[in-house]
Structure formats: structure tokens, C-alpha cells
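thread from #wetlab-drylab

HS: before we spend reagent money on co-crystallization trials with protoporphyrin IX containing FE, can we at least see a predicted complex? here's what I'd submit
DV: go for it
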Amino acid sequence: MLDLADVQGVVLRGYAMPHARHLLLQVDSPSAGRRLLGSLVDGSPGRPQVTTGAPWTEKPECCLNLSVTAGGLRALGVSEESLATFPGEFTAGAVARAERVGDVGPSAPARWLPVFRDPGLHLVVSLFGRTPEAVDRAADRLLAGTAPGVRELCRLDAALLAGRVDHFGYVDGISQPTVDGAPPPGPPDRLPVAPAGAFLLGHPSQFPGHTYPVPQPEALGRNGSFAAFRVLAQDVDAFAELLATQSRRTGADPELVAAWLCGRWRTGVPLALSPDTGSPDPPLPPDALNDFGYAGDPRGERCPIGSHVRRMNPRDSRVAGGGGHRHRIVRRGLTYGPPYDPAHPRDGQERGLLGLFIGVSLRDQFEFVMREWATDGLFAPGLGRSQDPFLGAGGTLPLATPGGGRTALTDLPRLVTTRGGAYCFVPGLPAIAHLAGR
Ligand code: HEM
């Protein structure tokens, strides 16, 4: 049985909050760090408290969650013996694992925001609020009561754009895994419900007969999870040019080109359900937006096999290893930077998506999808060495034509560049108290 009050809310439930701030903190004094953690779970008056997975009676104005890097565990006084029981990819960290997930060239750590190369990046405190003021208030209350031995390195703000779109103009935040024992995430899909152990340590996982080892001591590991914190810059000028160029080359409407790249029209309507229009008449009910599979479309004639959503969640498609639904990820990202104004292109502003990509195993979820599905096409027929149109380095998007033919969009540019990454442990509530020495 899952005790939702023991689990950080960010793992199991979408807060549907339109504003976020991530405070990146360094712990210089273990005792100050422990005091900070303790104050987030002990009901201290005036201190924001960690939001759990337990249902709300009233939606708060701001939610708070805490993630800790391996360096952070060390800085809080966790022993090397205990750290050795954590998975190797977590203790190695995002910089060391960059090449595996395609963070090379312009996405290489050498080009990241310096804070993500700083070994002093210990804690990520994520605030999710209804308004920017609610986030400000929570951040002020948090930092005002924090002892000098904990220092803010940097803050990263993000927000929902009007229409719930990302900077490329796609409605985002539709598909999330349904987790056994957790609140329903939004529009349902047809996949088997994910076991809690796909996202939380100490429960049977998505691989039959396998439970991921709980880092020790048990009080620290149980009901924890792992997250890749990512800052991903989007090149919206390149995206706009790509739509225009490919539309000229193929004769397809630019909106159809956009739908091929993503697997959903920019309206959020999946190609799998509506291959000809992003605005079907009558409209798809919101609950139907995630209710589809690809089994009836093995060649990708409706939805390209190489499109972003089909790569990131192949659902019932045939994929190498047969594990199409065993690598699911909870996404908690929002956009950063100003909205793109097509009337004023090339404004020199950085914009993109930032947030947490969560799973019980960084290796088998975040790293797996980035390495096997995003940056190497060989997992499914017809993809060659192509890469994810959003997450890869550019190249081609293979397309199947009716009647058994194949064509491709070619000369795709790189659209997304990694600006930072951090591998974090997302401890359960008792584990935060344990780290605080309570
Ligand atoms: C700037 C970078 C990215 C952009 C612009 C982007 C865009 C999108 C969009 C528009 C959707 C469709 C909306 C939805 O189904 O909720 C989507 C879905 C998804 N994305 Fe991304 N994404 C980005 C990065 C990533 C990364 C880094 C990962 C994984 C590590 C990822 C994994 C997924 C998954 C799992 C889905 C849901 C697929 C499904 O269940 O059908 N995305 N993304």
C-alpha cells in the first residue's frame, strides 16, 4: 500500500500551477542544511512545508518540493557507505553521464550554465504557485529563515504560457503515466496502469519480479524517487524556418509538418486519432486526447514512428526489447523566457523548457529514452540512425507514405540545446526528516 503522505507530491500528482521557481542551493554547513530540511517537514509556523502526495482539502497557493544531488547528500552528512548503495548514474551525476544522453557539441556540459557544473549544487527547492506573488512569498519565507550555512547559487523561474503551449506553440502537459494508487493524472491512456514502483523506491517495479534496490538506510531510500532536472533551450527561429522550408519542399501545410515532428498537432490533437486535421469537427472531447495507441499504424502512416511523442512513449508499437511502456517518465516542466513574437523574430532572447523528469531509475527511464529512443533510431523499423526531431542534433525525420513507400524530411536543424542538467534524489517525507537528523 502506498502512503501518499510519505511521498513528495511532485512525483505523483500534477499541481496544475502556472508558475514555478527552482532555487539552487549550496549547503556549506551540514547542520544548517539539516536545520533547513527539518523546518520543511516539521510544521514550523511561517515556513513553507514540503507538499506531499496526500489529497488536498483546499488547493494551496504554493507547493514546495525538494531534490538533492549526490553532492548534496554528502554535504548533509550522508556517509560514503550509504552513498555507495545509491545507483551509480546518480552518484556520477549529470555532467559525467552527459554523453550517454546526447549532451554533446552545443549541449555539452562545457557550454552549460556554470551552476550546473558547480559541485556546490546540492539542493533544488522547487516552488510551484498559482501566481508569481505566491511563489515570491514562499521563496522569501524560505530564504528568510535559512541559516547562513545554506546559500542560494541561482534561481530559475518558469511559467505556463497562454494556451498551455510550449515555445514551439504545441499544447503541452497532456500525457502523463497513470500510477497505481496515485491520483489520476489527467486524460487517461490505454496503457497498463504503471505500478507505483516505476516511480517510487521500495515497491515492485514495471519489470515483473523486480523491485529496484532501496538505497540504505531504508529510512533514507524508501518512497524516494529520482529526477533529471533539465534546462532545455528552444530555437524558435529555427523551428519557424523549418516549418516554412519543409512546407515548400513537400507541399504539406506547415501545421502538418509541425504535427509530423511532434506526433500531435499544435492544438494537442494526436495524429493517431486525427491524421488530417488538428481541429476535427466535432472536436475531440478533452478526455479522448490521450486515448490512443499505434498498433493499427505499424508503418507510421498516420503518426510518424520518429515523431517526438511516439519515440518518447511508443505505447503499443513494436519496439526492440518489447518494453514500449516500461520506460515511462513523469514530466514536471514549464517554459522559461519571454513568449516568442513571430513579428519580431531573432530577438536574441533565450527561451525553453525547464523542470524535472522523474522515475524510479534515471538509467532505465530518463537515460534510456534519451539514449535508445531519442538519439538512436534503431529501436523501431524504418528509422535508420535518425534522432528525435526535438531532442536530437537534427538530420532527418523518416515518413511512411501510403502504399508502402518511404520519404523523409531532411536537413532538420537542431531545435533544442541543453543548458543544464542535474541528477537528483527526491526523498520521501520520512527520509527528509531522517536527513534532518530527526
Ligand atoms: C524542449 C524540449 C521538449 C519539447 C519542446 C517537448 C515537447 C513535447 C510536446 C509538445 C509533447 C506533447 C504533449 C503531451 O503529450 O503531453 C510532449 C510529450 C512528451 N515528451 Fe516532450 N518535449 C521536450 C523534452 C522532452 C524530454 C527531455 C523528454 C524525456 C526525457 C520528453 C518526453 C516526453 C514524453 C514522455 C511525452 C509524452 C508522450 C506520450 O505519452 O504520448 N520530452 N513533449
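DV: The mean pLDDT is 96.
HS: ok that's useful, forwarding to the group
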